[in-house]
Write a structure and sequence with these properties.
Layout: E1 7-12, H1 23-32, E2 35-40, H2 49-57, E3 61-65, H3 81-87, E4 93-102, H4 110-127, E5 131-136, H5 139-152, E6 157-159, H6 166-174, E7 178-181, H7 191-199, E8 205-207, H8 229-240, H9 244-258
Helix pairs in contact: 5-6, 8-9
Length: about 260
Amino acid sequence: MSDMLHIVDSHAHLDYPQFADQLDDVLMRAAENGVREIITIGVKLSTAEQPRRLAEMHDNIWFSAGIHPHEAGNESDACNYDAIRQAVDHPRCVAVGEAGLDYFYDHAPRKAQADSFRTQIAVARDTGLPIIVHARDADDDMIAILTDEMDKGAFTGVLHCFSSGAALAHAAIEIGFYISFSGIITFNKSEELREIAKSVPLSRILVETDSPYLAPTPFRGKTNEPAFTRYVCEKVAKIKKVELAEMARQTRQNTYDLFSRINRA
Protein backbone atom coordinates (compact mmCIF):
# COMPACT_ATOMS: atom_id res chain seq x y z
CA MET A 1 0.00 0.00 0.00
CA SER A 2 2.74 2.49 0.89
CA ASP A 3 5.92 1.07 -0.64
CA MET A 4 6.37 4.14 -2.84
CA LEU A 5 5.39 6.71 -0.23
CA HIS A 6 7.78 8.59 2.03
CA ILE A 7 5.86 11.03 4.21
CA VAL A 8 7.27 13.04 7.12
CA ASP A 9 5.14 13.86 10.15
CA SER A 10 6.66 17.24 10.94
CA HIS A 11 4.99 17.62 14.34
CA ALA A 12 4.01 14.95 16.87
CA HIS A 13 4.25 14.51 20.63
CA LEU A 14 5.56 10.98 20.95
CA ASP A 15 6.59 11.42 24.58
CA TYR A 16 3.01 12.02 25.71
CA PRO A 17 1.41 9.36 27.94
CA GLN A 18 -1.02 8.24 25.21
CA PHE A 19 1.93 6.53 23.50
CA ALA A 20 3.85 5.32 26.54
CA ASP A 21 2.97 1.62 26.25
CA GLN A 22 2.60 1.30 22.49
CA LEU A 23 5.27 3.34 20.78
CA ASP A 24 6.68 0.37 18.84
CA ASP A 25 3.22 -0.36 17.44
CA VAL A 26 2.68 3.32 16.66
CA LEU A 27 5.93 3.46 14.70
CA MET A 28 5.06 0.24 12.88
CA ARG A 29 1.67 1.59 11.81
CA ALA A 30 3.34 4.79 10.67
CA ALA A 31 5.73 2.87 8.44
CA GLU A 32 2.87 0.80 7.04
CA ASN A 33 1.23 4.05 5.93
CA GLY A 34 4.37 5.51 4.39
CA VAL A 35 5.21 7.80 7.30
CA ARG A 36 8.93 7.18 7.59
CA GLU A 37 10.24 10.11 9.64
CA ILE A 38 8.77 11.97 12.61
CA ILE A 39 9.73 15.11 14.50
CA THR A 40 8.71 14.85 18.15
CA ILE A 41 8.17 18.24 19.73
CA GLY A 42 9.30 19.71 23.02
CA VAL A 43 6.90 21.89 25.01
CA LYS A 44 8.85 22.46 28.26
CA LEU A 45 12.54 22.60 29.09
CA SER A 46 11.78 20.74 32.31
CA THR A 47 10.76 17.69 30.24
CA ALA A 48 13.11 18.23 27.30
CA GLU A 49 15.00 15.00 27.91
CA GLN A 50 11.94 12.91 26.95
CA PRO A 51 11.71 13.82 23.24
CA ARG A 52 15.51 13.92 23.11
CA ARG A 53 15.76 10.33 24.33
CA LEU A 54 13.26 9.15 21.73
CA ALA A 55 15.33 10.75 18.99
CA GLU A 56 18.48 9.17 20.34
CA MET A 57 16.85 5.74 20.34
CA HIS A 58 15.31 5.83 16.84
CA ASP A 59 17.07 6.72 13.61
CA ASN A 60 13.88 8.08 12.05
CA ILE A 61 12.85 10.34 14.94
CA TRP A 62 14.10 13.89 15.43
CA PHE A 63 13.20 16.39 18.13
CA SER A 64 12.77 20.02 19.03
CA ALA A 65 13.22 21.84 22.34
CA GLY A 66 11.38 24.88 23.58
CA ILE A 67 8.56 26.33 25.66
CA HIS A 68 4.93 26.18 24.54
CA PRO A 69 2.96 29.39 25.19
CA HIS A 70 0.78 27.50 27.69
CA GLU A 71 3.93 26.97 29.79
CA ALA A 72 5.36 30.47 29.50
CA GLY A 73 4.07 31.49 32.91
CA ASN A 74 5.21 28.48 34.90
CA GLU A 75 8.47 27.32 33.33
CA SER A 76 11.36 28.88 35.22
CA ASP A 77 13.49 29.01 32.07
CA ALA A 78 10.78 30.34 29.76
CA CYS A 79 12.90 33.41 28.99
CA ASN A 80 16.33 31.95 29.75
CA TYR A 81 18.26 32.34 26.51
CA ASP A 82 21.22 30.27 27.69
CA ALA A 83 19.06 27.38 28.91
CA ILE A 84 17.11 27.24 25.66
CA ARG A 85 20.26 27.43 23.59
CA GLN A 86 21.79 24.59 25.60
CA ALA A 87 18.64 22.47 25.11
CA VAL A 88 18.83 22.75 21.32
CA ASP A 89 22.56 22.03 21.19
CA HIS A 90 22.20 18.41 20.11
CA PRO A 91 22.78 16.84 16.68
CA ARG A 92 19.26 15.39 16.56
CA CYS A 93 17.54 18.60 17.62
CA VAL A 94 16.17 20.19 14.45
CA ALA A 95 14.29 23.21 15.77
CA VAL A 96 13.47 25.62 18.58
CA GLY A 97 9.96 25.38 20.01
CA GLU A 98 7.16 24.96 19.90
CA ALA A 99 6.80 28.57 20.92
CA GLY A 100 4.28 31.28 20.20
CA LEU A 101 1.02 32.84 21.30
CA ASP A 102 -2.26 31.24 22.38
CA TYR A 103 -5.04 33.69 23.23
CA PHE A 104 -7.77 31.04 22.98
CA TYR A 105 -6.87 29.40 26.29
CA ASP A 106 -4.68 32.15 27.80
CA HIS A 107 -3.07 29.63 30.15
CA ALA A 108 -0.17 32.08 30.56
CA PRO A 109 -0.19 35.89 30.72
CA ARG A 110 0.09 37.34 27.24
CA LYS A 111 3.22 39.31 28.09
CA ALA A 112 4.88 36.14 29.39
CA GLN A 113 3.96 34.36 26.16
CA ALA A 114 5.39 37.17 24.05
CA ASP A 115 8.59 37.46 26.10
CA SER A 116 9.25 33.71 25.89
CA PHE A 117 8.43 33.69 22.19
CA ARG A 118 10.87 36.52 21.48
CA THR A 119 13.59 34.81 23.51
CA GLN A 120 13.15 31.62 21.51
CA ILE A 121 13.23 33.56 18.26
CA ALA A 122 16.58 35.00 19.38
CA VAL A 123 17.91 31.49 19.92
CA ALA A 124 16.63 30.42 16.50
CA ARG A 125 18.23 33.42 14.86
CA ASP A 126 21.59 32.91 16.56
CA THR A 127 21.78 29.14 16.03
CA GLY A 128 20.35 29.08 12.51
CA LEU A 129 17.69 26.60 13.61
CA PRO A 130 14.09 27.16 12.53
CA ILE A 131 11.41 27.99 15.08
CA ILE A 132 8.18 26.01 15.34
CA VAL A 133 5.37 28.48 15.97
CA HIS A 134 2.07 27.87 17.75
CA ALA A 135 -0.49 30.57 16.92
CA ARG A 136 -4.10 30.53 18.07
CA ASP A 137 -6.48 33.49 18.15
CA ALA A 138 -3.50 35.86 18.14
CA ASP A 139 -3.10 36.72 14.47
CA ASP A 140 -2.47 40.47 14.80
CA ASP A 141 0.09 40.14 17.59
CA MET A 142 1.74 37.21 15.82
CA ILE A 143 2.18 39.22 12.64
CA ALA A 144 3.53 42.15 14.66
CA ILE A 145 6.08 40.06 16.56
CA LEU A 146 7.27 38.11 13.52
CA THR A 147 7.67 41.32 11.51
CA ASP A 148 9.44 43.15 14.33
CA GLU A 149 11.79 40.26 15.05
CA MET A 150 12.60 39.75 11.38
CA ASP A 151 13.69 43.40 11.24
CA LYS A 152 16.25 42.57 13.93
CA GLY A 153 17.79 39.78 11.87
CA ALA A 154 16.66 36.94 9.65
CA PHE A 155 15.35 33.63 10.96
CA THR A 156 13.08 30.97 9.58
CA GLY A 157 10.32 28.73 10.83
CA VAL A 158 6.89 27.18 10.41
CA LEU A 159 3.41 28.01 11.58
CA HIS A 160 2.44 24.56 12.77
CA CYS A 161 -1.08 23.07 12.86
CA PHE A 162 -2.27 26.10 10.95
CA SER A 163 -5.82 27.19 11.77
CA SER A 164 -5.48 30.98 11.64
CA GLY A 165 -6.60 33.52 9.08
CA ALA A 166 -5.40 34.26 5.57
CA ALA A 167 -3.62 37.46 6.64
CA LEU A 168 -1.29 35.54 8.97
CA ALA A 169 -0.66 32.85 6.38
CA HIS A 170 0.30 35.41 3.75
CA ALA A 171 2.43 37.42 6.19
CA ALA A 172 4.30 34.27 7.17
CA ILE A 173 4.94 33.27 3.56
CA GLU A 174 6.10 36.79 2.80
CA ILE A 175 8.90 36.50 5.41
CA GLY A 176 9.92 33.05 4.17
CA PHE A 177 8.06 30.84 6.64
CA TYR A 178 6.34 27.53 5.96
CA ILE A 179 2.75 26.56 6.74
CA SER A 180 2.02 23.14 8.24
CA PHE A 181 -1.42 21.58 7.92
CA SER A 182 -2.83 19.02 10.34
CA GLY A 183 -5.98 16.91 10.56
CA ILE A 184 -7.98 20.11 11.01
CA ILE A 185 -7.90 20.53 7.23
CA THR A 186 -10.04 17.39 6.87
CA PHE A 187 -12.81 18.60 9.20
CA ASN A 188 -16.19 19.41 7.66
CA LYS A 189 -16.19 22.97 9.04
CA SER A 190 -12.69 23.82 7.75
CA GLU A 191 -13.65 25.16 4.34
CA GLU A 192 -11.98 28.52 5.03
CA LEU A 193 -8.76 26.72 5.92
CA ARG A 194 -8.93 24.69 2.72
CA GLU A 195 -9.30 27.93 0.76
CA ILE A 196 -6.17 29.27 2.47
CA ALA A 197 -4.32 26.06 1.58
CA LYS A 198 -5.15 26.64 -2.08
CA SER A 199 -3.20 29.91 -1.93
CA VAL A 200 -0.11 28.56 -0.18
CA PRO A 201 2.69 27.64 -2.62
CA LEU A 202 3.50 23.93 -2.75
CA SER A 203 7.07 24.80 -1.86
CA ARG A 204 5.91 26.19 1.51
CA ILE A 205 3.65 23.38 2.76
CA LEU A 206 4.39 20.81 5.48
CA VAL A 207 2.09 18.13 6.87
CA GLU A 208 1.75 16.92 10.45
CA THR A 209 -0.52 15.21 12.94
CA ASP A 210 0.06 17.15 16.19
CA SER A 211 -0.67 13.73 17.64
CA PRO A 212 -2.07 12.59 19.99
CA TYR A 213 -4.57 15.38 19.25
CA LEU A 214 -6.75 16.36 16.27
CA ALA A 215 -7.14 13.04 14.51
CA PRO A 216 -8.21 13.61 10.92
CA THR A 217 -11.40 12.40 9.32
CA PRO A 218 -12.25 9.46 9.39
CA PHE A 219 -10.67 9.03 12.85
CA ARG A 220 -12.28 11.96 14.67
CA GLY A 221 -12.50 11.30 18.40
CA LYS A 222 -9.71 8.72 18.40
CA THR A 223 -6.12 9.14 19.55
CA ASN A 224 -4.20 10.68 16.70
CA GLU A 225 -0.91 9.09 15.66
CA PRO A 226 1.78 9.62 13.00
CA ALA A 227 0.26 7.02 10.64
CA PHE A 228 -2.61 9.43 10.09
CA THR A 229 -0.29 11.97 8.43
CA ARG A 230 -1.16 10.04 5.28
CA TYR A 231 -4.75 11.29 5.47
CA VAL A 232 -3.62 14.88 5.93
CA CYS A 233 -1.29 14.51 2.96
CA GLU A 234 -4.10 13.02 0.87
CA LYS A 235 -6.41 15.92 1.69
CA VAL A 236 -3.82 18.57 0.89
CA ALA A 237 -2.99 16.76 -2.35
CA LYS A 238 -6.65 16.86 -3.33
CA ILE A 239 -6.89 20.56 -2.50
CA LYS A 240 -3.75 21.33 -4.52
CA LYS A 241 -4.80 18.94 -7.32
CA VAL A 242 -1.64 16.85 -7.31
CA GLU A 243 -1.05 13.13 -6.84
CA LEU A 244 -0.48 11.82 -3.32
CA ALA A 245 3.03 10.61 -4.18
CA GLU A 246 3.95 14.09 -5.44
CA MET A 247 2.54 15.77 -2.34
CA ALA A 248 4.47 13.34 -0.15
CA ARG A 249 7.65 14.08 -2.10
CA GLN A 250 7.17 17.85 -2.04
CA THR A 251 6.27 18.11 1.65
CA ARG A 252 9.17 15.82 2.51
CA GLN A 253 11.57 18.03 0.58
CA ASN A 254 10.13 21.12 2.23
CA THR A 255 10.63 19.51 5.63
CA TYR A 256 14.24 18.72 4.80
CA ASP A 257 14.80 22.25 3.50
CA LEU A 258 13.46 23.79 6.70
CA PHE A 259 14.83 21.32 9.25
CA SER A 260 18.26 21.09 7.71
CA ARG A 261 19.78 18.99 10.51
CA ILE A 262 17.78 15.98 9.36
CA ASN A 263 20.11 13.38 7.88
CA ARG A 264 18.94 12.65 4.35
CA ALA A 265 21.52 9.98 3.60
